[in-house]
């Protein structure tokens, strides 16, 4: 069985849109795409009068080298969100097929499925936010086409072991495509599931430059998968997904100096994550600080709503995750600069002092 047998048959047989840029390239006088012959004003617009390469070779090569794969195993798009959407549209027939997710987890898996009118099957993580493999596998039906695993998980920060991921991959052979979202793995010591791609044709891995590489505003995400899956998704991808300025920003980030800067910042985040976990855990009113392999901490409070409002009044925005299962008392706090982290701690300490004063214990 080919992994493409899991995909929608009408997608496998459709004639994809053929853009002017893919039909002809390398000419001197470009008169085939109805573009402007004049560049826009300003240095930032240089070359932007022409449509960009749908999958720029320089970027593909840089990312393939970074991730240790072949360029034909790589699709680059507008953040991981686009890859998630493409996967759901390619593999899930509206009103018939389903995906499996493990709440609490990243919300876009379910959003993309519901837009496609695919069923979303929830298999909650265990109480310690680890993967419940027996429950997950018990939920697999012939309708399930995609299974999403997020590691390190968002919003808990907990990683899944490579052994657990491989156990799921083995169980899903011929049944569903396994998608492992590794948006935060640069902050973790866990081994990437990329190592399994050549062994399992039904395994795909999501990576992004938004987090560790500081390019959230450029929207550069990657799907790493079997070349047949990559080719299938390119059939339904918009013809020009990557703006030239975004590609330039990505190539700069992936240059030797850019990689050195990212490495230094990742180290700061890891050090500050450990510091913030210790410091937060010592504060009255903090019930628990979850262990995290990502660039954030999920923190349980006695009164998460009051903490959220107090931080907001001070101009500090954190993520309210109380709507997620098992996190009804929690906020997610991204690890910022040392100064930003110190401000968070100062506000939380001031709340403790205010309560002591109100209680007459100050």
Automatic annotation (TrEMBL):
Q: Which family does it belong to?
A: Belongs to the class-II pyridoxal-phosphate-dependent aminotransferase family. Histidinol-phosphate aminotransferase subfamily.
Asked if the Swiss-Prot or TrEMBL record annotates the protein with the keyword Cytoplasm, the reply is: no
GO terms assigned for molecular function? transaminase activity
Among the Pfam families in the record, one is Aminotran_1_2
Is Cell membrane a UniProt keyword of this protein?
Answer: no
Q: How does it assemble?
A: Homodimer.
InterPro entries membership:
Aminotrans_II_pyridoxalP_BS, Aminotransferase_I/II_large, HisP_aminotrans, PyrdxlP-dep_Trfase, PyrdxlP-dep_Trfase_major, PyrdxlP-dep_Trfase_small
Per its UniProt record, the required cofactor names are: pyridoxal 5'-phosphate
For the modification N6-(pyridoxal phosphate)lysine, the affected residues are 211
Associated pathway: Amino-acid biosynthesis; L-histidine biosynthesis; L-histidine from 5-phospho-alpha-D-ribose 1-diphosphate: step 7/9
The Aminotransferase class I/classII large domain, residue ranges: 43-345
EC assignment: 2.6.1.9
- Sorted alphabetically, which keywords does the UniProt record give? Amino-acid biosynthesis, Aminotransferase, Histidine biosynthesis, Pyridoxal phosphate, Transferase
Record field: catalytic activity? L-histidinol phosphate + 2-oxoglutarate = 3-(imidazol-4-yl)-2-oxopropyl phosphate + L-glutamate
Q: Which PANTHER family match?
A: HISTIDINOL-PHOSPHATE AMINOTRANSFERASE, HISTIDINOL-PHOSPHATE AMINOTRANSFERASE-RELATED
Query: What PROSITE patterns would the database entry show?
Result: AA_TRANSFER_CLASS_2
Transmembrane region positions? none
This protein's species is Dyella nitratireducens
What is this protein called in UniProt?
Histidinol-phosphate aminotransferase
């Amino acid at each position: 069985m080919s992994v493409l047998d899991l995909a929608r048959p009408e997608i496998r047989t459709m004639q994809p849109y053929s853009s002017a840029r893919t039909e002809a390239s390398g000419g001197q006088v470009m008169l085939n795409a109805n573009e402007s012959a004049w560049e826009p004003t300003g240095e930032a617009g240089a070359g932007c009068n022409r449509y960009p390469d749908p999958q720029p070779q320089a970027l593909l090569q840089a990312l393939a080298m970074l991730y240790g794969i072949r360029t034909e195993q790589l699709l680059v798009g507008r953040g991981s969100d686009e890859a998630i959407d493409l996967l759901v549209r390619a593999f899930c027939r509206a009103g018939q097929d389903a995906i499996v997710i493990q709440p609490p987890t990243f919300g876009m898996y379910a959003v993309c499925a519901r837009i496609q009118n695919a069923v979303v099957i929830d298999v909650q993580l265990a109480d310690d936010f680890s993967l419940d493999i027996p429950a997950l596998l018990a939920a697999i039906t012939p309708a399930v086409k995609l299974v999403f695993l997020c590691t390190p998980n968002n919003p808990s920060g907990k990683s899944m072991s490579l052994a657990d991921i491989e156990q799921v991959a083995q169980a899903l052979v011929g049944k569903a495509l396994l998608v492992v979202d590794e948006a935060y793995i640069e902050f973790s010591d866990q081994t990437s599931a990329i190592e399994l791609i050549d062994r399992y044709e039904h395994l795909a891995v999501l990576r992004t430059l938004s987090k560790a590489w500081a390019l959230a505003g450029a929207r550069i995400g990657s799907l790493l998968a079997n070349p047949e899956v990559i080719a299938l998704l390119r059939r339904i991808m918009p013809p020009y997904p990557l703006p030239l300025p975004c590609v330039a920003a990505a190539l700069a980030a992936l240059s030797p100096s850019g990689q050195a800067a990212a490495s230094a910042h990742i180290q700061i985040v890891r050090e500050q994550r450990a510091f913030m976990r210790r410091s937060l855990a010592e504060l009255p009113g903090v019930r628990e600080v979850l262990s995290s392999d990502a660039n954030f901490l999920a923190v349980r409070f006695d009164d998460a709503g009051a903490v959220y409002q107090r931080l907001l009044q001070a101009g500090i925005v954190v993520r309210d995750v109380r709507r997620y299962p098992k996190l009804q008392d929690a906020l997610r706090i991204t690890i910022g600069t040392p100064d930003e982290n110190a401000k968070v701690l100062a506000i939380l300490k001031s709340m403790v002092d205010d309560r002591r004063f109100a209680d007459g214990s100050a």
